[in-house]
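dude i think i finally got it to work??
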Amino acid sequence: QVQLVESGGGLVQAGGSLRLSCVASGSIFSINDMGWYSQAPGKQRELVASITGGGSTNYAGSVKGRFTISRDNAKNTVYLQMNSLKPEDTAVYYCSAEIVDGVVMNTMAYWGKGTLVTVSS
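look at this
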């Protein structure tokens, strides 16, 4: 069974930085796209950044120039470096990955349980 586990969230002052990590484990044949999503209280979940298996990246306009997504394929891990954080970045951040299961060779989207990022003003 495939699992995604996020870490690195916490409380930080505006202008500070955090680095989120997400590790995929279990029966994994390969991982395609990976991404980070945020969900603020009372709002819908939205894409923050994504990265393909080849390393191409995509960012939400609100985080361009401040956040950087990267991945380590050998470790089945995706990272989100968050700099110049703003109070409006406060949200639960979820990791998602499109994974080819190593047993039945199905491709499915998996989600982590989320990590809370709180930015104080």
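The chain has no helices and eleven strands.
im so relieved honestly
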